[in-house]
Amino acid sequence: MTKLTQYAEAFWGTDFLSTSGSDTLSKHNTEEKKFLQDFEEYLRKRSKMELEYSKSLAQLSRSLKDRPVVGVLEASWNCLRGELDTCRQSHEEAGLFFAHHAEETKRFCKDIVNRRESVEGRLKKVQNQKSTMYKNMMSLNKTYRQKCQEKDQAKDQYDIMRREVTSTVKELDKARTKRDKTDEEATRADSAYKTSTITLEDMRQEWEREMEVACKEFQDYDEEQICFLRSEMWMSVNRVSQTAFDVDESCERVRKILETCDVNQDVQSFISQFMTGTERPAPVPYQNYYDTGAPGSSSGGGGGSNSRAGSASSSDTFQRAPVPPPPASAPAPAPTPVPALGNHGGSSAFYSLAHNVADSVDPDYSTVDPTYSTAEPFPDPSVRQLTVSKSFQTPPNFSVQAGEKVTFLRKVNPNVVEVKTHLNKIGNIPLACIRETV
Q1: Which of 32, 190, 271, 296 is packed most tightly, with the most Cβ within 10 A?
Q2: Could you give the C-alpha distances from 136 to 13, 15, 75, 188, in angstroms and in order?
Q3: What are phi and psi of 7, to 5 degrees?
Q4: What are the CA-CA distances from residue 180 to residues 25, 89, 177, 219, 320 (Å)?
Q5: Distances, alpha carbon 416 to alpha carbons 347, 376, 435, in Å
Q6: Within 10 A of 425 (CB to CB), how many other CB atoms are there?
Q7: Would you say the pTM of this structure is higher than 0.85?
Q8: Which residues, including other chains, have CB under 8 Å from residue 362's CB and lie 6 or more apart?
Q9: Which DSSP helix (H) or strand (E) runs through 416?
Q10: What is the per-residue pLDDT across 193-236, written as a single tens digit (0 to 9) for each?
C-alpha cells in the first residue's frame, strides 16, 4: 500500500452525506489547539519557577556576609558568593526567556486557531448546503415518481374506458382531462427533479473543491504548527541546558580555587597573621610552708612551733609565709598522703603541680607520690589501646589490673590520663601505670 502524504487524498467517504473526513480534521484541530495551550502553560509555569528561584538566590546572596577567613577558603567563599549572583542572573534570564516565548506561543495559537476556524466555517457552510440540496432533490424525486405513477394510472384508465362501449362521452372527456393533467404534472415533476439533480451535482463539486482546499490548508497549518513547536521546544530545552551550563561553570570556578587549598599553608597563614606569642606562661611552683630560708620565717624551735600553730588558721597555702624547718633533733613529719585519683579536675591539677616541683621540694616534706614522679613520656596520641603495666585503684570503685587492656580517652595533665575499661568504666590513672599495646 502506497503511503499517503496529503490530507486531500485521505479524508473522504463513499456516503454522499458523510462528514467523517471533515469531522476528523475538526477534532484534530481542537487537539492541536489544546496542545498549543498546554505548551504555553508549561512556558508560563517554567518562567514563574525560574523567576521565583532567582529571587530566592538573590535573598540568599544578600544574607551571606563577608567573613575574614584566612587562606584559600576566604577566596573560595568570596568566589562562591559572587558566583551565586551569577547563577541568580542566569535563572532570571531563563525566566524572562520563558515568559517571552509563552507570549509568542499565545499569539501563534490565537492566529492559527482563527485561520482554522475560518476554514472550518466555509467547509461546514458548503456541507450544509449540499445536505439541504440533497434532501430537496430526494423530495422532488419522490414527487416525480408519484406523478409518474398517477400519469400511468390515468392513461390506463382512459384507455380502458375508450375500449368499453358503455362509456359515455362525458366520462371519456373526464378521463382524458385527468390523463392530460397528470401528464403535465409528471412533466413538471420530472423537470424539477432534473433541475435539482443538476444543482446538487454543482453543489457536490463545489463542496469537493472546498473540501480539498480545506484539507490542504489544514495540512499547511499543521506543518506550520509542527515547525513552530519543534523550534520553541528546541529553544526551551537549550535555555535549560544553558542555565545548567552557566551554573556548572560557576561551580567550576569555585572548584578551581578549592583545588589550590593546602591545609598546612592555610594554617601557617593564619598563624603568621594572628599569632600572639610563642612563649608559654611559667608554671606556678609549689611553696612548702616550712621551706628553709623563706622570707619572713622565724628561727628556733619555739618559732617553728608557733608557725605550725599559726598555719592551722590559714586557708591558703600559697599565702602563708614559709618558716625554717624544725631542729634536727625533732622527728621529721610523715609525708602527706596522695589524695585518691578520681574524675575531678582538682585532683588532676594537684598531681600536675606536684610533678612540676618534685625535684625542688625537700623529700622529707614532699607530697609527690613516686608513681607520678617517675612517669614515662606519653605514648603516641594515635594509639587508642593501652595495656596496664601496674595495678592501680582509686576509691570508691575504679580499679585496673596489670595486663588489662584499656581505651585511651584523653590526657588530663602531663602525668595523668583518662581511660575506659572493658566494663565501660571511666577513670584517671597515672601515666606510669600504662604502656602501649604491642
Answers
A1: 32
A2: 21, 17, 90, 15
A3: -60, -35
A4: 53, 96, 5, 58, 163
A5: 10, 11, 13
A6: 13
A7: no
A8: 288, 290, 291, 292, 325
A9: strand 416-420
A10: 999 999 999 999 999 999 999 999 999 999 999 999 999 999 99
